[in-house]
Amino acid sequence: MQIPGHIDPVTTGTVPLRGGNRIDLVGLTREGIRAALQEAGLDAKAAKLRAKQIWHWIYHRGVTEFDAMTDIAKTMRPWLTERFIVGRPTVVTAQVSNDGTRKWLLAAADGQEYEMVFIPDADRGTLCVSSQVGCTLNCRFCHTGTMRLVRNLGAGEIVGQVLLARDALGEWPKGTMAGGAEDEEDDAGHYTADGRMLTNIVMMGMGEPLYNFDEVKGALKIVMDGDGLALSKRRITLSTSGVVPMMARAGEEIGVNLAVSLHAVSKEIRDEIVPLNRKYGIEELLAACAAYPGANNARRITFEYVMLKDKNDSDADARELVRLLKQYRLPAKVNLIPFNPWPGAPYECSPPERVRAFSNLIFEAGISAPIRTPRGRDIMAACGQLKSAATKPTRAELDRIAEEKQAALG
Ligand code: SAH
Ligand code: SF4
């Protein structure tokens, strides 16, 4: 049977190079940097040593100029500058909401635009990171899903968002390398809830992270690396709309917290609002959650549930949600997200008293179900409001999309 709706990953374009002929080192593994240095002419031993030093400067110190890498011989720095860069996404616009939420519109080297959001709270600061330009999945309540053109972001473009946020927040460790950075008190290289603003990362910006697995994994490995950004996997959450075949690998190979965009408890409604459900149904999804490596009562899976008026918000829906979570014995918490509107959206948010009643029913069954406070709505930075103007496709891209659609129709 032909499945209506666009549920398979159809992306356009490849990740472009920043810096012309020079190689951007951001997003490469340590081993990748070593190989690039060796390729450029260093011998194996020198390449290994320099890779370690450069890694530390890029990810621990936030340095973007080789000239500032003071433990690398002065004569070698111009040699590096000629061949490599430490890139950053270009900031197109930066906005601040009246609740303190910040949103940046970023441009990649090919002009494709994507957004990232920083949400400050009393006890934490959360960076909401994008994994794709746009999203192929077309969830009906999501603004990002209305973008027609989609490109995967590269690991460098994903980790670049974190680097840029630390630039903007002025959070790189100070001090010099003299005497060894590791000895300096303020230079421990760990994010802490006190002192640092950026403490948590959520892969909840534009895109479906499990449709861009390798690049997301590469980026998060860099973010978690102890000699660098050193963010604990417990402070990172990956949200998926339910790409079942990739969930076990996400748990085994990345190991971060999992959030699942459930949003409905019946096939009929979930098929309508999350079209991926036609491919991977609720039972299959919950079974994959039950098998998610690392999930237990101390590390619960978050089930996201967007509150849509008269669509998925009845008492019966809440009871069915509890029943399903119990049936699959899921170490679960539910996150109720009041629907964030966008121009032309086909839904309305449930009234606040309905959201509270829904939340109470779940709490009464012994499952935590807090209501997420909308943040940054005034600058269109809240969940599901992100969208950038996709660049006009070339003729060749249009032809390719047409061919792929034809192929999908069989
Ligand atoms: N693509 C991933 C992650 C990004 S979206 C996913 O779907 O899980 C982060 C969360 O915001 C998801 O639960 C998503 O369903 C939800 N969301 C999307 N549009 C929304 C809207 N308009 N209002 C509230 N939440 C929305
Ligand atoms: Fe894509 Fe997530 Fe939006 Fe669905 S909710 S369209 S998966 S970004």
Q: What are the main properties of this structure?
A:
single chain, 410 residues, alpha/beta, DNA polymerase, domain 1, TIM Barrel, nine-stranded mixed β-sheet, two-stranded parallel sheet, 13 strands, 32% helix, 15% strand, globular, disordered N terminus, binds S-adenosyl-L-homocysteine, binds iron/sulfur cluster
Structure summary:
The chain has 410 residues and is α/β, with parallel strands linked by helices. The chain folds into two domains: 15-85, DNA polymerase, domain 1 (Orthogonal Bundle); 90-178 and 194-408, Alpha-Beta Barrel (TIM Barrel). It has helices at residues 30-39, 44-61, 76-83, 155-169, 213-224, 244-254, 267-273, 282-290, 315-327, 352-364, 395-409; strands spanning 23-24, 84-85, 90-96, 102-107, 113-120, 125-128, 132-133, 151-152, 200-203, 236-240, 257-261, 301-307, 332-338.
Overall pLDDT level: 89
CATH superfamily membership of the largest domain: Aldolase class I
Give the uncertain stretches in residue-range form. 1-6, 178-194
CATH class of the largest domain: Alpha Beta
- What kind of sheet is the major sheet? 9 strands, mixed
The tally of structural domains comes to 2
> So how many helices?
11
Note the gap between the termini.
11 Å
Determine the CATH topology of the largest domain.
TIM Barrel
Helical fraction equals 25-40%
Structural class: alpha/beta
